[in-house]
Amino acid sequence: MMTIRDRISEKFKELFSCSGTVYMSAGRINLIGEHTDYNGGFVFPGAIDKGIWVEMKPNGGKNVRVYSLDFGEYSEFGMNEEDAPFRSWARYVFGVCREIIKRGYAFGGFDAVFAGDVPLGAGLSSSAALESAFGFGINDMYSLGISMFDLALTGQATEHNYCGVNCGIMDQFASIFGKAGNLMRLDCMTLEYEYYPFKPRGYRLVLLDSAVKHELVGSPYNKRRESCERVAARLGRKFLRGASMDELDAVKADISEEDYRRARYVIGEEKRVLTVCDALNRGDYETVGRMMYETHRGMRDDYEVSCEELDYLNDMAAECGVTGSRIMGGGFGGCTINLVKDNVYPVFTDKAVASFEARYGHAPKVYDVVISDGARRVE
Ligand code: GLA
Fold this sequence. Notes:
Layout: H1 4-16, E1 21-30, E2 42-43, E3 45-58, E4 64-68, E5 73-77, H2 88-102, E6 110-116, H3 126-141, H4 148-163, H5 170-177, E7 182-187, E8 193-197, E9 203-209, H6 220-234, H7 245-250, H8 257-282, H9 285-302, H10 308-319, E10 324-327, E11 335-341, H11 345-360, E12 365-368, E13 376-378
Parallel strand pairs: 4-6
Antiparallel strand pairs: 1-3, 1-13, 2-7, 3-6, 4-5, 7-8, 9-11, 9-12, 10-11
The chain binds alpha-D-galactopyranose.
């Protein structure tokens, strides 16, 4: 079977009669620390072995000519603000170009073909992988010297300014900084980070994709962020990070009941990330798993970003004795992430797939997590 890399190279040759350089950037998982990034808190992501591959080459002109192999669509656009393409996937590429230009870098037009294997709308950050693959490629191809952190910020700004999602920095960070076999703890306030080797003996991570598409654009995602910002402002803080439940309770009468619950989730999640870090240092995966279940409950009841299918998968995990399970990513669909003992794995995946299918008429997909490298040039 042809690899993604082979397929994009074949198409590149066909469209542009030459070859370019291939780059890839990864999708991500997140062990714990959900909706904490835009609150200045901690996240615990890792890059996965699924990503976006792009072949690129300068074309000597001013336009970007790009083909999406997965959509079977072509788009050509200039790089001035008024040139924004209408296809939604092309807006990501356009946004990355614009954000790099806005930061004062100059580069010329280029040709590109891309494809990927990160399932769309599954909460695995296919959009961050796309932004990071193009950002990394442009930076390398034109030797622009943009730092890896600035590349991540460029991808995030693309989401904010061209795609309508006021996301945090986690996805782009993970897509670029990922390292095989390691999770990363990122402090989203200071942007300090640490690699955590993650090879739990006797356990593995598995994703169950509900195939309920989550669409963060125009979704309640931005509303969650607004709630957090309102409460932080009421507390006289820039971020919810560091706020205590006592502080929150002291302003309870002045904020809406909904905002109160949103903030309660975030404050709880902050504590859980730190508990998980300690537990990982001790090799205590039972505590890690307990925190994951707690996160799921918080995301379901207080943050309200789960859905029936994900709650069902979470219940199945508990029933099968899975160590930890929770909804992963922005929410409103997508995957659960499960920390499963080796001997529980076959029983759990078989049972969850069969009973989910019987109930919802389609089987969830099972992805074994392989923690992999982030953005890179593919030799
Ligand atoms: C999406 C966003 C991230 C983060 C997660 C929730 O993936 O892009 O910035 O907020 O949701 O943790």
